[in-house]
Write a structure and sequence with these properties.
single chain
Length: 90
């Protein structure tokens, strides 16, 4: 058995983001609450579709400042030009 298996996420939550700085604080709070109550480790993957607002800055700050996002659950922030990220998550 792999000794790191207990740290691997059981759930992956993929969230497309496009100029969402106004709603990200509420979303992050709700994700925090949800991830506390699920029956396994979760990771959250945000895919930024080229936002021109501060969405990426907010997400990177969350990943840096919240220890639950530092290991697992993790907040990798991807960046896709145009709308490729949004369409690829459907």
């Amino acid at each position: 058995m792999d000794p790191t298996a207990h740290n691997r996420p059981r759930y992956s939550i993929v969230v497309p983001v496009f100029n969402e700085q106004a709603v990200l604080p509420v979303l992050l709070h709700r994700l925090d609450l949800m991830m506390q109550d699920i029956d396994g480790v979760a990771e959250t993957i945000f895919v930024d579709d080229g936002s021109s607002d501060c969405s990426a800055i907010i997400l990177r700050a969350k990943a840096k400042d919240d220890p639950r996002y530092d290991k697992y659950p993790r907040v990798p922030v991807g960046r896709c030009p145009g709308y490729e990220g949004r369409s690829s998550t459907r």
